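A favour, since you know our structure tokens better than I do. Go ahead and set the record down below.
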Amino acid sequence: MRRTALLVSSALLAALTPLTAAGAAEDPAPAPVPIDRFEGEVPFAKPPAHGIFTWGGDSDDPPTLRLGAREDAPEGEKVLSGTYDISGYGGFSHGYAFDEQPHNWSASKGIRFWWDGRNSGDRFLFELKDGGANGEASELWQAAFTDDFTGWKQIELPFTEFVYRTDYQPVGGIDQVLGLTEMWGYAVTLPVGKPGEFAMDGVELYGRADPALRASVTTDAAVHPVKEGGTATVRVTLSTTGAVPVEQPVTVAYETSGGTASGSDYVPVKGEFTFPAGTASGTTRAIQVRTLKDKSAEPAETVPLKLTVTGAKAPAEDPQIVVNAHGLPYLNSKLPVQKRVADLLGRMTLEEKAGQMTQAERGAMGKPGDIAAYDLGSLLSGGGSTPTPNTAEAWAKMIDSYQLRARATRFQIPLIYGVDAVHGHNNLVGATVMPHNIGIGATRDPRLARRTAEVTAAEVRATGVPWDFAPCLCVTRDERWGRSYEAFGEDPALVESMETVIQGLQGRRDGRDLDRDDKVLATAKHFVGDGGTEFGSSTTGSYTIDQGITKVTRKQLAAVHLSPYQEAVDRGVGSVMPSYSSLDLIGDGQGPVKMHARGDMINGVLKGRMDFDGFVISDWNGIDQIPGDYASDVRTSVNAGVDMVMAPYSYKEFHSALVAEANAGRISERRIDDAVSRILTQKFKLGLFEQPYADTSGARKIGSAQHRAVAREAVAESQVLLKNSGGLLPLKKSQKVYVAGSNADDIGNQSGGWTVTWQGSSGDITPGTTVLEAMRKNTSRLTYSKDASAPTSGHDVGVVVVGETPYAEGVGDVGNGHDLELSAADQAAVDKVCAAMKCAVLIVSGRPQLIGDRLAGIDALVASWLPGTEGDGVADVLYGKRPFTGQLPVTWPKSEAQLPINVGDASYDPQFPYGWGLTTLTKVPHGGTATLRALGPAASAAERAGADEAGRALVTKARLIVQQKPVTAALAKPFAEADRLLTQGRYGAAVERLTTAYREG
């Protein structure tokens, strides 16, 4: 989210102190209090420091800002101006630093500023940050103004015009009262959908507050569920600006009126009470509504409680009592899931079914009541869409508040809430962040892969989230792809072997463990072929390969991209997400077709041939990329087999379009019922009908030493030792070490994209241990110089940690502002350190980096991938606490011109082949060819006997022998093929190929 800090003088702080009553009498028109003059007194900076900063829904949504002199500046010499072109949301903030005290604006009437109008008709939102621990944990209040004028105009926004935002609030709010006594600054939200420019100047407080407009009435909740026959209690609270006693009486009249409940379901109430003048802010009164019990089974019924407030602001919405559904078969947990689904489905209207097929972004909901108004079946948090504050407790409270809204629907069908926890609960600050999938693939350890997923599931479910949009089962075939680190590797057999993560997330294959407090529904994505798109084929913005076209024969599709999905279905995966990409099947005559529209693949292959019985969830706005208007997008995708549509911002439009298409007969009732049945089945299996609210009993384990130990082990096993001249590694604690490089001490770079925010970011974004910090635990004889500017003399060995900065999806595509080369600063650090001493270079990246021109000058080279928060795992292998055992999950190219390059290619001459990985702390077998000849029959015997552990050990011995030779094209091809055979369990053939590699290398 977004906001931060103002630089103010002591004089201004004094000016912000509320005026006394005597002062008010003496000065009926107080002087304005300046907030921001834009003369350069406030820097551009990020939280928690003070400053102006931008924010947005994705990387190109934040506006560009500048401070510059203008002759027509209304105040001073400079103004703040900027440009924008926003597709999701974007704007800028100005708030106080976290280590300062908030300011008191309660003496003023409102806030005003100069705006340079362009008569565009655009609507701008001006937001205040009120109360809370800091600007990032404050309540948000907003007012709007329209640019319907030309030239400079002073916009005045009385505080009475600001309304409480229904999104992006601290969980549960603070008091839902614009108190004005603890203000953290302001923000401006800019228009969406077209490019624009703006300029503003002279933000200040003006006027004197009207005491009569300071009181507000709120209720403790908008929805009050109660068992039939029980009594609901609605608490009504009076609050005042500045927390002063109310100066005038406030009267609240109440009456039960309307709703779906009848007179025989409850005892009507009607009355009135008054908060007299002098009542303290925070005083609460209670209204009770008694419900009546009868013998019939019924859906939920609502009893609205109408409140009429005199002398204060009324609540944003009237509360409603909900008599819970009871006695209906679908509520009986002893019945089989299939019968519960059939019973519930038979009671639902088309509109209710459409709601179950709709998923909205929690931050994009117009108002929380939309959950019940549209019978929404699901919400999600996109990358970086987090509660305030971003804590485990706040996540649980947030999701519980949404589940409470679902209780106001007829059948009280719980929401299923989803997140992209793709390497740990990566949206949550303080969670255990695992290595990205590319590193997990490098471990070649299916049991460890499952354990990492078990940790992820436990941490995700403990925050109230039952659904994870993971794992990615893509088979990455071109490292120019910005998502390549989301893959376990380039070979489908390796991907399949890592699918133990599905059991780590879900538990047993039949779904019986899904209702546990440490399991979540998994999602196999992105079906199918997302890793095979051709470079230059993308038509999405500036992307070059992501969301492009995969052009293959049916045989190639089945052999490379489809096989991991059959494994996922066999493992009982509960949901599948189609790919943004297009599939061009050679010979089918259709040309490229978006996967969200390919009924032959979703209905025909996935649900038909593979017998997938879970549900299909679209990707973020994925159906919007299908050619045609929105109605045809809905019709085409749903008829193709998409069961739930992720329509983050357009959930209302999707719901309406789906109902219209079904009523017109263009989507059949049978198709709708199939989709809803699949969704309800997983909700029942997850136990959400019995326990819709968060079970936080496991929250204490989030980021625990136990969980981090699993991540640390995964990090250690993921490190791939590519070169180790003279046995430089492992390091000795007695050596004096010189550490340099951009990624040695940066937890954000180390974690990569999809960490706290969608794109991730550099810097100290979440608790963890950097590589440098981990190394310092092993030796005190260490010098650190990020840019290698410190003197290098007197050191025994250098360790240079270089690589990439974070990115996600097509934003990271090569050619979209990215390449596979080290930065100039990293190249300089490598050159300087490695020229001065023996050196080890660690590459922290989501994909191979081109290092060939420097390889000769590097003594040891390590592919560290994106290890996440546990840098101790890197130090464990650097200092010999654990051996290097990782193997390349993708081919390491010599040049970008070789791409795409993959195991099995006819022409194969990489820098390092697929499967390459030296080891330490292990003796290499002697005997060369003779030993290899002996290992072959033994490996074949192990294969016939089903002795997998013994077979793998024999192949590993052969691989270690071969790796003593330098890499050549003649060695690389059979070596890589041997590793693929090993993953397939063909141990004899693997040793045979390794023998060929040794002989020809």
